[in-house]
Write a structure and sequence with these properties.
Layout lengths: L3 H9 L10 E10 L3 E10 L11 E12 L2 E12 L7
Antiparallel strand pairs: 1-2, 2-3, 3-4
């Protein structure tokens, strides 16, 4: 697991790249008052940096988007890496 400082340093240095095969699957979308959308899904990816470099990872995601000034802006994101073989949900 990367520390907060390592994440910010990696973003600054452009290290948040993934090997080919990145896949994002959208499971659910909900609109509220035509201005906010919550998306839930799953990402499958292989990082090219950090302690999990080269390891195929799976994470459940929740994104919150808000429509402001004619554009959709992500206002929050939560992602949890899980073991795809031992699904506990």
């Amino acid at each position: 697991m990367l520390t907060r400082a390592e994440i910010f340093e990696g973003r600054k240095n452009g290290q948040f790249d993934y090997e080919t095969g990145y896949k994002s699957t959208l499971e659910k979308v909900e609109f509220f008052a035509n201005v906010v959308v919550v998306t839930m899904g799953e990402d499958t990816y292989t990082p090219t940096f950090g302690p999990d470099k080269g390891k195929r990872l799976h994470r459940k995601t929740t994104n919150v988007w808000q429509y402001t000034d004619g554009n959709w802006m992500m206002t929050a994101r939560q992602a949890t890496i899980y073991d795809s073989v031992d699904k506990q949900y």
